[in-house]
Amino acid sequence: MTGPVVVLIPPSACGAGYFARLRRAVAGHADVRVLELPGHGRRFAEPLLTRARAAVLDVAARLDGPVDVVYGESLGAYVALALVDTLAQERPPRLLLASNSPPSVREPIDLAGVTSMATAAAVLRAMGGDVPDEALSDPAVAGQAYPLLRADLHLAQSFVDLTRDLTVDIALEVLAGTEDRALAGLEHWSRHTTVGCSLTRLAGGHLLSRTNPDAVAAAVLRATLTP
User: Fold this and answer.
1) Rounded Cα distance, 213 and 207, in Å
2) Which of 40, 103, 217, 219 has CA 20 to 30 A from 33's CA?
3) What are the residues facing 33 on neighbouring strands?
4) pLDDT digit string (tens) for 162-214?
């Protein structure tokens, strides 16, 4: 469809399906594109990435023109921040970052302690992520899920390193769930922009597009109307 181009970047271990309810909520109002990383969603057969720069180059190459809004959630927030820093378009996109602490205040992830599905799940849950119980109790599922979680945790640390001192000339709109206990220092997102930073609290948990897709959709659509 024609209309504002909205790019969605999902959390760790998620593909386009994660945004199904959000996409339905904005249907008819915007041209929505979900940027999946290799090894995720429809790109499940591709090799996983663990380095942030490679991931940014990958998702940037999947854009075929200017975009109006970029929305990133959890790990996707760091991907979105790094992505917009690379975009060479006359009018910069609106940038919405959800469900993550600013990289400038992030403590290092204990990657050395990630040696099994159980330890990977514990680290991801401590960061606010969700791991289905089945992924821990079913050895077959765990065997498939562990490489993905491990790679995404390494990728998350790489993005923290890449964006810790990154500042963009774009206003940031930060969204946070009122039930998200994993967030800290949200006011320090202002360190990552030379323009301005706003914080909006929405009812919901860490996986905001899953727990409150209508409110996220409203924020995204408002962004498409903002000059």
Assistant:
1) 10
2) 103
3) 7
4) 999 999 999 999 999 999 999 999 999 999 999 999 999 999 999 999 999 99
3-state secondary structure the chain: CCCCEEEEECCCCCCHHHHHHHHHHHCCCCEEEECCCCCCHHHCCCCCCCCHHHHHHHHHHCCCCCCCEEEEECHHHHHHHHHHCCCCCCCCCEEEEECCCCHHHCCCCCHHHCCCHHHHHHHHHHCCCCCCCHHHHCHHHHHHHHHHHHHHHHHHHHHHHHHCCCCECCCEEEEEECCCCCCCCHHHHHHHECCCEEEEEECCCCCHHHHCHHHHHHHHHHHHHCC
pTM of the model: 0.96
Cα radius of gyration rounded to whole Å, the chain: 16
Domains of the chain, start order: 5-225 (3.40.50.1820)
